[in-house]
Amino acid sequence: MALMTFDAAIADSENFAKRHLLLGNGFSIACRADIFHYGSLYAQADFSKVPEVQAVFEALGTQDFEAAIRALENAARILPAYVPHGAAAVAVAKMQEHAAALKEILVETIAGNHPNIPPEIADEKFWACRRFLANFLAGPKAGCVFTLNYDLLLYWTLMHDDMPFDDPIALTKNDGFGNDEDDPDADYVVWQGETGAHDAKVHFLHGALHLFDSGSELKKYTWVRKQIPLIEQARQAIAGNAYPLFVAEGTSVQKKAKIRHNAYLYQGFKQFTANVRVGTHCVFIYGHSLAVNDDHILTRIGRGRFPKLYVGIYGDENSADNQRIMQRASALADLRAGAHPLEVAFYDAASANVWGAP
Predict the structure, then answer these.
(1) What angle do CA 19, 161, 109 make, to 5 degrees?
(2) In angstroms, rounded to a whole number, what is the distance separating the alpha carbons of residues 111 and 180?
């Protein structure tokens, strides 16, 4: 059976009260396949100068840079109390050196896998993407956009509202962040907590590279306010012990554990769960392979109540990878109880022209 076009899928979805969108890494790959075709920052990191630090990740059972850095720093503080007479000095110095090296590796890996500033992406690409997002963030059918990516392309697109047309596209871009009431002129904004999360329409389910956890609050650094390239923002924040909030763990169980232990991530998770339980809504998936390492999100679709799921398929629908995606989508539908069946439709992802015509 031939795939639907994206426009046909949108027309078909007019029967529903709201449309929601779930984005995967294919959203970013469609923009810049040369740099966004990666699985994780850990997989891309170059540890050749300090190969010993990989043992830290292995000992902790994680791929989370922040966890490894904090473990090294905490061990360096604690060790002298257990190894007296200065015998720990060499080990402490090495742990501190490796913690600092890991911070720089994290910064360099982020920069290597991402455009440095928004102008490195052509305006026409942002304008095309805004037209795509308008199906979900504008008009009477507007719902929410949930992304599993932690890059900045979605955020930059939402901020790129200076379209030089007579009818520019206005998108709802509330993401739950606002001015710091103690410092309203700061060059960052802060998460407004659970109350703000209920009104948010854009959710970074796995965090993002512009969200930094300073311990007391979650800050969102903005290009508009700072005019500082991404690599410098990251370096400054990490130097001040504020780490980018993103889920870098490998398995669904590990990802879910981190989500449950962070208020922002957990609120986004709950908002996704709440929306897929509304029987008058529909959901589109774009750029996601329905891989099992995101089952903590995908199974919520199978346990939801919305009637129809539209899944984007890129390329030959008869390829092994696409057949697997279709089978996974059908398996999600099979999770539904009899009272709330789920219909699955497949559309040609390329026809969405998310970043403009090829």
Answers:
(1) 85
(2) 27
SS3 40: coil
In the chain, where are the structural domains located?
6-35+117-352, 41-112
Over range 329-350, report the average pLDDT: 93
Residue 61 contacts by C-beta under 8 Å, 6 or more apart in sequence?
none
Integer Cα distance of 6 and 347 in angstroms: 6
How would you classify the pairing of strands 202-204 and 142-147?
Answer: parallel
Q: How many other β-carbons are positioned within 10 Å of the β-carbon of residue 257?
A: 13
Question: Percent of the chain at pLDDT above 70?
Answer: 92
- Edge-to-edge strand ranges of the sheet holding 202-204: 202-204, 142-147, 18-23, 281-286, 308-313, 343-348
pLDDT per residue over 111-138, tens digit each? 777 887 888 899 999 999 999 999 999 9
Which residue's entry shows tokens 């963030």? 137
Burial letters 307-336, b for 16+ CB under 10 A, else e: bbbbbbbbeeeeeeebeebbebbeebeeeb
Q: Which of 210-224, 250-264, 325-339 has the lowest mean pLDDT?
A: 210-224
Considering the entire predicted model, what is its pTM? 0.86
